[in-house]
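Weekly structure sync - notes
Attendees: PM, LS, DV (DV joined late)
Agenda: review two folding runs queued last week.

Item 1: First target. Sequence and structure tokens pasted below for the record.
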Amino acid sequence: AKMMKYLLFSSLEPEKLTTLKELTTNEICRVWAATSRHIRSQLLQKRAVDIGVGTFAVVPAQATVGEGEVLPLERPVFRLSKLLKKFYKLKCPKTKIPEETPSVQLDFEQIAADIHFRQEIVEQCVHETLLFFAGALRDGKEVEFSFR
């Protein structure tokens, strides 16, 4: 149900992004840097993280080294939600996250404490950024999101 709010039937109204308007670029970057650190710490604990538009996880992979030697490793992936993919008619590579992987939501309280921001500011900043992301998908704009 949380994901439904990212299915936009019409172009995004700028007044929906009140928190992003009030924050400086630096503050928005701080929120996302802390969010990235939080996601990374969950991935290191073998948990998948659902951020509302999709899920970050670590999946088993293999690397071939030398003479047919196979090295098992893990790689981070992002799987866009099925609903979003369908709604925006997006083509993405299929990513399977192992079923036994426990999934968690973002812990806004912890992220906020990490950067000494109010929890609702962090929550709104993340939500509005994802809304902006959905708006760009809806309007067929190219979007680049980078996580450290």
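Item 2: Second target, run right after the first with the same settings.
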Amino acid sequence: GYRVSLQGNFFGRNHTYITFPEYNPCKHIKLDPPFNIESNVTASQCHIWWSVPWHLEEILQYELQYKEYSTPWEVALNKTLPSSLPQIEIEATELHSGVTYTARVRCKVSENEDSYHSQWSEWSQTTVFQRPDVPKLSEKILITGTMQLLIIPLSFGTLLYLFWNFNLSSRWQKASPALTFPRQLLSFSHSIICTMETLR
């Protein structure tokens, strides 16, 4: 431990001011930033990793920051890593296809560590990566699948419509003789009346 004091001459008098009566350097650490940051992108995810001194790996925590290459860091996305492993995987769904990104990382002593305390380090150097464009074949497959999903209900609806119309048409034809029955009955009645008049 240390005792930190400030001495000075003020208005012709020497004064000593105790700034830290008990200063413990291990509680006020500022680490060097991670180094050798690299990235690798696949169709499903982006893998980013970096290096730190090996004897510090187990007590550190990290914060990753990434953004589109052409935008300022003020709009970057931040991820605090849940483990002390010097790596992270970003799902491809979080990245736009064909867009170039840049990322950086910083570190500090984990909050769970009792022996040491620190503030965040400076940001590391950056790594640049890009999610590949979605293949056109996949787009065609997606369009074909969508068309198939649309054609099935449309076909079913058309068949249902034709069946309904055919059924109504059949019922109409069966009902037609009943509709002509009153005319036949009137003709029959007229014949009977004529016959009765003849007999008279």
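Discussion on item 2: The chain is about 30% helix and 35% strand.
Action: LS to circulate a short write-up before next sync.
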